[in-house]
Design a protein that fits this description.
Arc Repressor Mutant, subunit A; single chain; elongated
Length: about 90
């Protein structure tokens, strides 16, 4: 193997290790998602979003969005109402 190929493989491996296991390529880190979602709910009183709407608004996969929204429910920052929408707690 040529030195350039070895260097390329080494960088690729380092980049893979730098990303947390639950991170998805192309999506921001979870802490950034939490800040973005909480900030949006603070800026827009009365905001009520279903998972599909929130995923579209924040540019996320539905499963990622659902996971973050549920974590925010668990931490008391959001609550889920009867129709399945998420609102500020």
């Amino acid at each position: 193997m040529r030195p350039a190929e070895q260097a390329s493989r080494h960088v690729a491996a380092a980049e893979r290790r730098a990303r947390p296991r639950d991170a998805v390529a192309g999506e921001p880190p979870r802490s950034q998602l939490v800040s973005m979602i909480v900030g949006t709910y603070r800026e827009m009183p009365g905001l009520q979003l279903r998972v599909s709407d929130a995923a579209r608004l924040f540019g996320l996969r539905s499963c990622t969005c659902h996971m973050v929204l549920e974590a925010l429910v668990g931490s008391g920052q959001l609550r889920r109402i009867d129709d399945g929408s998420y609102v500020r707690a």
